[in-house]
Design goal:
The complex is a heterodimer of chains A (112) and B (118).
Chain A lengths: L3 E4 L2 E5 L4 E7 L6 E7 L5 E8 L4 E4 L2 E6 L4 E6 L8 E9 L4 E4 L3 E6 L1
Parallel strand pairs in A: 2-11
Antiparallel strand pairs in A: 1-3, 3-8, 4-5, 4-9, 6-7, 7-8, 9-10, 9-11
Chain B lengths: L3 E4 L2 E4 L5 E7 L6 E7 L5 E7 L6 E2 L8 E7 L2 E6 L8 E12 L2 E6 L3 E5 L1
Parallel strand pairs in B: 2-11
Antiparallel strand pairs in B: 1-3, 3-8, 4-5, 4-9, 5-6, 7-8, 9-10, 9-11
Classes of the chains: A mainly beta (112), B mainly beta (118).
């Protein structure tokens, strides 16, 4: 059974810090891994998608890495800003399960 | 592009009534639509997957008679919570899938519907 775990569950940092959010999954047979952002009471915004053959993806201040063999991914946020405050969700898509399986998220608060 | 809308964005209803939530892909035709449920501070849990013109596939533990899904067209799916009870109060999110390659689909998520059953 595929399980996705995110650590830490919550994080509060001052503005300007570089951050690392962690995601691990139990079944390494995945097609891809996605990182999403969710603002309170809102839907999901896709941030980065990493195919199973890729090692990392970058978008602006965000960098996501994938180590499929060890079942780990990290989301790196550079120079954090208060506008980055949100919940960050990691999800994997596996052909065997044919669906996205989500972690519980990391709630990030960046204070001025 | 790839915008998904949900209506209503929030709803309050009395226990025992039925509530219908719509999910629309506004600028593309969706091969598949997905319905998720999210409790506070918890992850999204897939409830069911639906394809246009066919019956929805429900995840284990989800009552198909309680959560009725209709996928009338390639741009519209509806979720009806029948005889709602307070424990059905949750945040319901839909997504619309667009096949990119092979078995992979890119899912585009709606803004969610918050349901409160009194």
């Amino acid at each position: 059974k595929q399980e996705v775990t995110q650590i830490p569950a919550a994080l509060s940092v001052p503005e300007g810090e570089n951050l690392v959010l962690n995601c691990s999954f139990t079944d390494s047979a995945i097609y891809n891994l996605q990182w999403f952002r969710q603002d309170p009471g809102k839907g999901l915004t896709s941030l980065l998608l990493i195919q199973s053959s890729q090692r990392e993806q970058t978008s602006g201040r965000l960098n996501a890495s994938l180590d499929k063999s060890s079942g780990r991914s990290t989301l790196y946020i550079a120079a954090s800003q208060p506008g980055d405050s949100a919940t960050y969700l990691c999800a994997v898509f596996s052909g065997g399960y044919n669906k996205l399986i989500f972690g519980a998220g990391t709630r990030l608060a960046v204070h001025p | 592009g790839a915008v998904v809308s949900q209506h209503p964005s929030w709803v309050i209803c009395k226990s025992g009534t039925s509530v219908k939530i719509e999910c629309r892909s506004l600028d593309f035709q969706a091969t598949t639509m997905f319905w998720y449920r999210q409790f506070p501070k918890q992850s999204l849990m897939l409830m069911a997957t639906s394809n246009e013109g066919s019956k929805a596939t429900y995840e284990q533990g989800v009552e198909k008679d309680k959560f009725l899904i209709n996928h009338a067209s390639l741009t519209l799916s509806t979720l009806t919570v029948t005889s709602a009870h307070p424990e059905d109060s949750s945040f319901y999110i839909c997504s619309a899938g667009q096949r990119t390659s092979g078995v992979q689909e890119t899912q585009y998520f709606g803004p969610g519907t918050r349901l409160l059953v009194l």
